[in-house]
Amino acid sequence: MIPSTAPPIRGTRRAPVRGKNVAHTLLLLGIVAAPAVHAQASPPAGGTGSTATTTIDTIVISRQDVFPEEAAAGNIIYRLGNGLHGTTQPWVIRRELLLGPGTPYDSLLAAESERNLRRLGLFRRVRVDSTRVDGRLALNVRTRDAWSLQPRFTGRLAADGTLTGTFGVTEINLAGSGNAMRVWYVRETDRDGMDLRLTSNRLASTRLAANATWLNLSDRDVLAWYLSSPFRALSDRSAFYYEGRDFRGRIPQYVRHNPDDLQTIEWRRRAQIHRLTGAIAPVANPREVFRIGATLEVRHEEHLRIEHPGVNLDSLDATVPDSVYGLIGVYAEWRRARFERVERFNGFSEEDQDLSDRVWVSFKLAHERLGYRSTGIGTRLLLSSGRRAGPAILKGALDGGGLFNSAGLDSGYVFGTGTAAVRETERNTTFLQASAGIQERPRPGSEHDIGFQVLPRLWGPHAFVGTRTMRATLEHRSYLVDNFYNLFGLGVGAFVDYGGAWYPDQDRRLGGNVGITVFGGSPLSSFAQVTNLNIGYRFGGGIGDSERSRWAFSAGGGLRF
Fold it and tell me: How many CB atoms lie within 10 A of CB 541?
């Protein structure tokens, strides 16, 4: 099926005739339907949330470089930065707008255009609203570029001394074209190697998006490619997606342990996967969408279990034989749009919090005639919603699925999470998040594996492993300085984490930590996330950690809520 979340919704420029049709449709909907929720807390000036009768005469695009001109004039570093950065081209901005000359101004479409431009990841700040030029109505688009040539240093240091992270460079806006490339060295808990990627949001200025990725890691070699004509706006009526993946390598599975030891089974996997999805939207407007789609998937896959790691290939047990099989699926999605634009939330940059009401349901058929050992039906249901309640933002999601055959449930999972974020003042935000999940007979290596990069943050890698999990965190962040010398921001906070993972035939293994954090982030970035230095006290028990100090520290990317 298509990815676990719906494909990104991005804006696309509308031709004048089509724009009139969309506007007339919205006008009729506004007459016969009750008012819907606003697309964001404060609609841009000049609109009321319904289609206006005033027609846009022109588009005024005001582009600003990374550093303000007045600041760069007296600072050689800022001038050098602006010189190295290619300002986003006007046509990159124009093609993402949902409004244009000859179309009526609508504040909902203006708000969605603004979100679409932010979603490109090219800008620090975007505003789309209306203005008057010589008595005529103009669509006023103002952007400030983010720094696009980004060194990548996202190291995380675990309490047991394990260092992981990515180190390299990413250019997200090649020559101001909106295309991206990256060259990273990746060091994970169990592997390291190179990660290379090329991405085009608009392949040759068409509606097509494409990317290609090569992961050349110590225990695996992965090629992935993607070509699509996605839903770029809530009002788009059709889309298609093709993705392919070639995997050759090993997968570690952490299954059982003695009181202080972790048992590992290694699998050798070879797989090539092709997935094609097409979708249409019978209902498509800025307030509400309903989409249905179908997926065809073909897999060539083999799993080999290594009974004793390090032995020669003669000792391999072919658990899943070399086989080719197919999958047919259908899905439906309903969404009522609701967004909040926030700052000093996950980071120093502004971001859009998606609080939409959403229902996603899918069915997959794995039939004997398509190469499976037995016929099975796979299902998935995803529910999510969010609200603004005074100073708080509330979000929740429930995701569950399973594969059923003649013997009943073959494999399945249920996972739920809830988040409450309270903005006490402009510079203080408190987060409370809790989640829990259950798996039944998951694929090797996909069991819950938490600690270090997944809460609780002061525990080492693989500290808690199993098919049952629960975790929660309470974190307060104070954003002290937003823009120190126009280069970085700084803040402090405090946290309490608690959680664990275990197998159903074991006692629950849980642990937690309490501590303080210092975090920083760049106001030049288009992505809202901070980097943390954490120190605190651990309690409870994780695998292999009983003899280690209760005081610990870690460093790395901050949590995103």
Answer: 17
d(CA 355, CA 387): 6
Tokens 């794995």 sit on residue? 366
Question: How far apart are alpha carbons 459 and 417 in whole angstroms?
Answer: 21
> Measured between alpha carbons, how far is 460 from 469 in angstroms, rounded to an integer?
16
Give the per-residue pLDDT at 374: 72
Give every strand in the sheet of 58-64, ordered side by side: 58-64, 136-145, 123-133
> pLDDT at residue 41 above 60?
no
Please choose, from the candidates 333, 415, 331, the residue with its C-alpha nearest in 3D space to the C-alpha of residue 379: 331
Task: Evaluate the CA torsion angle 497, 355, 145, 13 in order and state its sign.
Answer: positive
The H-or-E segment that residue 497 falls in is strand 488-502
Q: What angle do CA 24, 29, 31 make, to 5 degrees?
A: 95
Contact 328, 510 (CB under 8 A): no
Burial of 247-256, coded b for 16+ CB within 10 Å and e otherwise, reads bebbbbbbee
Closest by alpha carbon to 380, among 398, 359, 363? Answer: 363
Distance CA 333, CA 217 (A): 36
Residue entry with tokens 């249905």? 292
Q: Is the predicted pLDDT of residue 306 greater than 90, yes or no?
A: no
Backbone angles phi, psi at 83, to 5 degrees: -70, -35
368 DSSP 8-state letter: G
Model confidence over 207-244: pLDDT tens digits? 899 999 999 999 999 999 999 999 989 999 999 999 99
- DSSP H or E run through 22: helix 16-32
Query: Model's pTM, two decimal places?
Result: 0.74
Residue 401 has pLDDT above 90, yes or no: yes
**CA angle (229 as vertex; 226, 231 as ends), nearest 5:** 115
394 close to 386: Cβ distance less than 8 angstroms = yes
Q: Examine the pLDDT at 20 and tell me if it is beyond 70.
A: no
CA neighbours closer than 13 Å in the CB half-sphere of residue 301: 15
Q: Are 226 and 203 in contact (CB under 8 A)?
A: no
Phi, psi dihedral angles at 313 (to 5 degrees)? -65, -20
Q: Please name the helix (run of DSSP H) or strand (run of DSSP E) that holds residue 366, with its range, or none.
A: strand 357-366
